[in-house]
Amino acid sequence: MLHAFISKISVVNNLNFLTHxxxxxxxxxxxxxxxxxxxxxSEPVNVNDFKELARLKLPKMYYDFYAGGAEDEHTxxxxxxxxxxxxxxxxxxxxxxxxxxxxxxxxxxxSAPILVAPTAAHKLAFHEGEQATARAAAAAKTIMIFKRxxxxxxxxxxxxxxxxxxxxxTADTPRLGRREADxxxxxxxxxxxxxxxxxxxDVNSDQGSKLETYANEMLDASLxxxxxxxxxxxxxxxxxxxxxxxxxxxTKAVEAGVDGIIVSNHGARQLDFAPATISVLxxxxxxxxxxxxxxxxxxxxRGTDVFKALALGAQAVLIGxxxxxxxxxxxxxxxxxxxxxxxxxxEISMALSGCPCIKDITRSHVRTPYDKLPSxx
Length: 377
Description:
Subcellular location: Peroxisome
Radius of gyration: 20 Å
Largest sheet: 6 strands, parallel
Number of helices: 14
CATH architecture: Alpha-Beta Barrel
Family: Belongs to the FMN-dependent alpha-hydroxy acid dehydrogenase family.
GO molecular function, one term: FMN binding
EC number: 1.1.3.15
Structural class: alpha/beta
Order of helices and strands: EEHHHHEEEEHEHEHHHEHEHEHEHEH
CATH class: Alpha Beta
Cofactor: FMN
Distance between the termini: 59 Å
Helix content: 25-40%
CATH topology: TIM Barrel
């Protein structure tokens, strides 16, 4: 049961619901021959360790569904590698005896600028599914986006009635990307109780995966910028748009009157060779000129990644796969640990960089590959 202090933000079309909540060591043997049981019993020391635990625990079909990207997965790799090309420039002799990671998102104070991204089918990872994830987000005093793909005035009205605090419009899924791991595995879409009656196709086909058909029937390929006006007309809630990757679309988003932007390539699951989100973040931030907040998802695996995104102008980051891997490995407790690990790493990064609070993190604290260009000309 979600506690009364949980407020929620829902995401439409491809509607995601965002819930705001007042948020052992290495294997015993150091040899290389410890078995799977030893691996499963070992405690992760960072977020990346949860990925291997999830791989060992989940059926291959489900692990690949979570871990995979579109086509050759270039963007999937680049989402992470692009962070590695950004260096942190620390300041010294700053009083960092007290570190304050708290920040405000859409008027809600949270413990750290780390949110839970909208991801599908949590029950494939753990029997309590999204409920367990939401409880972990509540314990971490952060925000969770709960995913719904159907879009309707009725759904928006229900979101308002149940206390959700914003709408997030996912704009980068006019149709499903080509996810070849799911095709090879003949991925079977899980039954979704809250969408019963909305779809009529047979997803459990002996002809192979019909996941693409299943998803495409719930997506709207005709969605246009003008539809934001319709959405605005049926709700008084703030509207964020997710899936922005260019200066041009960021400018249009501001002109359309949205209340925030999420820089996202859908976890590299849609268009392969789309840019890594961190590589275009600054472009989007410059386009909005401080008029609306900008958030980012994609490739965040370390507290240093969070720090880098904040330095380049993001107000917060969202994490997806690490949450799912934590959920698969250790249930609700795994999600809590993932969030706490990232918060702890961010706190250390801030202290070692001379930043006592979030507002102290500035563009001068990072150096990107593009910063070197003027000196090379």
